[in-house]
Design brief:
Blueprint: H1 3-7, E1 11-13, E2 21-23, H2 25-28, H3 35-39, E3 45-48, E4 51-54, H4 64-68, E5 74-76, E6 84-86
Antiparallel strand pairs: 1-6, 2-5, 3-4
This protein binds iron/sulfur cluster (SF4) (2 copies).
The site of one iron/sulfur cluster (SF4) has 13 residues, from helix 4.
């Protein structure tokens, strides 16, 4: 089974009013490596037209990106209570 197939089994309760992870785009603009795009298993980080694009809605809360980014761009918190990913379907 591919990672993408497993991700499709997960259930999310997205909080539209609170992004539990944010990035500093001014830092990302000059990033030399874009390690976040390689580390995130849910592909929340992609490069579109040369700019980093981040969407917290698909996050599986693994914490990889805050470690992978060596430039201090990622601000990581947990979703608010009752929000975020639910693994019981995964
Ligand atoms: S989040 Fe970090 S690793 Fe990813 S593009 Fe921004 S500065 Fe680079
Ligand atoms: S915590 Fe994990 S799944 Fe969420 S954005 Fe970071 S690397 Fe991706």
């Amino acid at each position: 089974m591919q990672v993408e197939e497993k991700l499709a089994l997960l259930n999310y309760k997205t909080d539209p009013a609170y992004a539990h992870i944010t990035i500093d785009e001014s830092i990302c603009e000059t990033c030399p490596d874009h390690f976040c795009t390689f580390g995130c298993p849910a592909k929340c980080y992609t490069i579109i037209d040369g700019r980093i694009n981040f969407k917290y809605e698909d996050c599986v809360e693994c914490g990889t990106c805050v470690i992978a980014c060596a430039h201090g761009s990622v601000k990581w918190t947990n979703p608010k209570g009752g929000q975020g990913i639910k693994y019981k379907f995964g």
